[in-house]
Write a structure and sequence with these properties.
Helix content is about 75%, strand content about 0%. It contains 13 helices and no strands. The protein is globular, with a radius of gyration of 19 Å.
Length: about 260
């Protein structure tokens, strides 16, 4: 089965590329600055969040702007990928009804678009690192590793959400509420020590906590995460992808009746 899926993926890779390009063009359509917003937006969000949370928490975290931006980059890659994937099958209903295309290609294209945007956010991150004086070492070249883990995790969740959203459209509203709570329970712009010790277990059951920490170890502390960190993050990504892929595979033949 996997051999057939791979052959099909190769056959439709050009369509996948066009979908990704189209997503990016639509995002910045009629915008004066266009794709430059991919760098400007994370920079502006970093400034706002730093001004608010550095005073609110009286944090002594060194290089706080970089701390905030690293958290936002990981979160945005996950959230933008999953939220946009959720409605991707329904949004392409007219195409699905007319011709055969592998349906998983739609949520995958949305996740890849989010990955491309993350690439621009890394430019913003490098600018901030230079401005605040974070040391840049060859360890920074390891950044694709945590990004791959987050992408794998987001793709799995995106496949799962896009499959079930075809049958239960309420999922999109529930997911928005859920991710808002999730974001505040992830140490994106506050130190983990803010939560009392009895609530620290919340971080241990939060997949993005491990991935944000992995990302920060490379960017802020120029250290390569341990083998244990790699196993945890890779396992989260693989398990998520397998569950999402399996759920999508089992449901996809019924999409045509509900889109």
């Amino acid at each position: 089965m996997m051999k057939n899926y791979w052959a099909n993926f190769i056959k439709y890779r050009h369509l996948l590329r066009e979908l990704v390009i189209n997503d990016i063009k639509l995002k910045y359509r009629r915008s004066v600055l266009g794709i430059i917003w991919s760098v400007l937006q994370p920079l502006m969000m970093m400034v706002v969040l730093t001004l608010v949370f550095s005073n609110l928490f009286k944090s002594d975290i060194p290089y706080f702007p970089v701390y905030v931006l690293t958290g936002r980059i990981v979160w945005d890659l996950y959230y933008q990928g999953t939220a946009s994937s959720m409605g991707s099958v329904v949004a392409n209903a007219s195409l699905i009804k007319k011709v055969y295309v592998p349906k998983y290609i739609f949520p995958l294209a949305r996740c890849l678009s989010s990955l491309v945007n993350t690439g621009f956010s890394l430019v913003a991150l490098l600018i901030v690192m230079l401005v605040v004086g974070v040391k840049i070492t060859p360890v920074i070249l390891l950044l694709p590793i945590p990004i791959f883990y987050v992408f794998l995790f987001a793709t799995g969740v995106g496949l799962l959400l896009s499959a079930y959203n075809v049958f239960f459209r309420d999922i999109s509203y529930l997911y928005e509420v859920f991710t808002t709570a999730w974001m505040y329970f992830t140490p994106l712009f506050y130190p983990p020590t803010v939560l009392p010790e009895k609530y620290q277990f919340i971080f241990t059951i939060n997949p993005l906590y491990y991935m944000v920490d992995f990302f920060r170890q490379i960017v802020m502390y120029q250290s390569f995460p341990t083998v244990k960190d790699n196993i945890i993050c890779l396992s989260i990504g693989i398990v998520s992808f397998i569950i999402g892929f399996y759920a999508f595979y089992k449901k996809q033949d019924k999409f045509i009746l509900y889109v």
